[in-house]
Amino acid sequence: MENTNEIQRQIATPKKKMPGSVIGVIASASVFLALNVIAGILANNIISAFVTVLIWGLILFFFARGGRLSRWLLTIYSLLTIGGLAAAVIVPSISKGFNFVNLLVILVVSSPVMATLAFAYKKSARQYAGLYCPACGSAKVRSGDIMYREVVCKECGGRWK
Ligand SMILES: [Zn+2]
């Protein structure tokens, strides 16, 4: 008896056109970065804004090329950003009372980050990153190596780059 999961078939994956969802990720993240730069100028904190643009720029560069590790970084960084923005409203409101203007600013700044995440998790964006099995169409996949360069299908055992 042979276990089908042990069959390590190499599947050729064709180059794909960038889907609208990936363009949506880049566009939403760009809106966030523009707001970040404006906030940096207003708060006289250009260095911090520059570092943010640099980090996001690198993540987006790899994401646009269908990177899988960059998806994780994008997710973690987006959640940290949203969490940080939420803390910026919650923490001062404990001591000084609730500030509606602060909440409004945070909502405006965090909405493009939420849009970035929503676009990144659309099926077409996940397909673009090669997270659907090209042989059987399953979304049940795992990383084939530590760097996520190779993906293995949990359903049919297919492997692709
Ligand atoms: Zn499969």
Observed structural traits:
single chain; 161 residues; alpha+beta; 2 domains; 4 strands; elongated; binds zinc ion
Beta-strand content: 5-15%
How many helices does DSSP assign?
A: 5
- Overall number of strands: 4
C-alpha-based Rg, rounded: 20 Å
Give the helix/strand class: alpha+beta
Q: SSE order, as H and E?
A: EHHHHHEEE
Whole-number average pLDDT?
Answer: 89
Descriptive overview:
- This protein has 161 residues and is an alpha+beta fold.
- It is 60% helix and 7% strand.
- It folds into 2 domains: 1-15 and 130-161, no CATH class; 20-121, no CATH class.
- The chain has 5 helices and 4 strands, in the order βαααααβββ.
- A hairpin with a 4-residue loop joins β3 (151-153) and β4 (158-160).
- It is elongated.
- It starts with 8 loop residues before the first strand and ends with a strand.
What's a concise summary of this model?
The longest helix is centred in the middle third of the chain and has 28 residues, at 69-96. This protein has helices spanning 20-42, 46-64, 69-96, 100-120, 123-128; strands at 9-10, 141-143, 151-153, 158-160.
